[in-house]
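Response to reviewer comment R2.3. The reviewers asked that we include at least one raw input/output pair. We reproduce the pair for Glycosyltransferase RgtA/B/C/D-like domain-containing protein here without editing.
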Amino acid sequence: MKQTIKYCFLCFLLSRLIVLGVAYATFYSFDTPPAPPGYAETQGPLDRKPLNVLFFYDSVHYLTIVNEGYGLFQTAWFPLYPLLIRLTGGTAASAVAVSNIMFFLGLLAVFKLGGRKAVLLTSVSPIGIVFSAAYSESLFFLHLFMVFCFFEGAEISICRYIGRAGGDVQVTGLGVDRCFGVIYF
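Raw output as returned:
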């Protein structure tokens, strides 16, 4: 188990350095960094703070939910990720920390299902920036692979509870519980 954690952590760390290195190089190659729609209206002008490369699009809404609660334009975002952000401090840095911790835990679940190669390929995926950004994708990633792990172990009752919790992460999580129920029964 210790070797598994060490390998997953190494893949996590190296992949985050690569992905974030490319993201920062891209971010700093513009004279004026590109700001996502709605960012300037809610957060002010985008500056070159290091964390801003991981804080874009939906991140603005998640932090608004954490700090002000649900408003008229935040009803499309599910509550589990903002709750975890609030429990860990309610800042952009805590949102990024939650995402990275969930991604690492998800890599452990991937290892259980697919081994070393699966962890390596998952961690260096080109879309990997969303697993480090202040997005709910890493939480959904963890949730989905936990469902797969418990399903493989034929622990269907636990699988269904985790599947139901996915509905608190993203809209696609609402269907996970139903899909596994249909497959098993």
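Residues 2-184 form one domain. The chain has nine helices and no strands. Further pairs are available on request from the corresponding author.
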